[in-house]
Amino acid sequence: MDDLSQFRDVAMISEDTLHTSPDGAFFPFMMNGREFPVRIVRGTPRRRYLAVRVTDAGHVEVLVPRWAAARDIQGVLCSKADWILRHLQRVQQLPPVVPKHYVDGEQHFFRGRLHSLQLISCPESRAASVSIVPETDRLQIRMKDPSPCRVRKVLERWYREEAYQLIGERLKVLCASIPWLKCVPPWKLRTMHRRWGSCSHTGKLTLNTQLVKVPEFCLDFVLLHEVTHLREMNHGWRFYALLETLLPDWKPRKRELDRIGRFILEKNAKENNR
Ligand SMILES: [Zn+2]
To answer: Residue 148: which H helix or E strand, with range?
Structure first.
């Protein structure tokens, strides 16, 4: 990649602007003869290393720990230039993520399968009801006034209830087979736009409500990934060695989750639509 020599000479950001700019600010960055906006994300005090990611909306982001100086950011962008360009190319080839409108016939994921919304107006009914019509791909919602904004609320509540039940069941089954785990760890649901889950220092899991939309073999991967953090907080080699003992085929599960995830994590749809 010849143009990279040019890109290495570009001063992207000065120490002063780095320290006076708000978290999440964009800075211009030259790469391969083109200018890219790079977003600097400072994150939590726990962050220890610099990391680069390319979002599905085609944004380059650098996650920066407190100690990092502008030259460190420059350094990581230079050393990962090839990788960044490859990922930017990959993003350009992805099919577009279509934002949801909550109208009749629209496709929505549930447990890894696409279902089409069937909205039935029931002027008499007080409470809305949501169900999967057996042996069809229909996700049926009966309610008084199926306007998009009400449908969205009803559907989100239903997903949450289903997620609570499904995740509770899977955690119970998975945790029962782990010899070093005495019981199911405490957990809560949260709707998140970037992460599938996290594990706190006190050992409490936070799991994304939207996991109810992915196939069960991807859900199991996320649950066991977070459970592994109960023993290994960081993503070091020990973490992966332990995950491997719990789930030897975690890699293809993760690949499928990455593929399907961009259609599910709503932020992507919003970003793409901007
Ligand atoms: Zn993790």
So the answer is: helix 148-176
Mean pLDDT of 89-108: 84
> How many angstroms separate the CA atoms of 272 and 274, rounded?
5
What domains sit in the chain, N to C, each tagged with a CATH number?
4-93 (no CATH), 107-266 (3.30.2010.10)
DSSP, res 46: T
pLDDT tens-digit map of 179-211:
999 999 999 999 998 899 999 999 999 999 999
CA distance 206 to 214: 17
Q: Ligand 1 mean position to 64 CA, how many Å?
A: 17
Kindly give the distance from the C-alpha atom of residue 198 to the centroid of ligand 1, in angstroms, as a whole number: 7
- CA 202 to centroid of ligand 1, rounded, Å: 15
pTM exceeds 0.85: no
Alpha-carbon distance values, 226 to 16, 105, 110, 158 (Å): 38, 35, 22, 24
> Which two structure tokens, joined as six digits, stand for 273?
């639509």
| Exposed/middle/buried for residue 88 (C-beta within 10 Å: 0-12, 13-18, 19+) | middle
Q: How far does the centroid of ligand 1 lie from the alpha carbon of residue 226, in Å?
A: 6
pLDDT at 8 over 90: no
- Distance (angstroms) between ligand 1 centre and the Cα of 181 equals 18
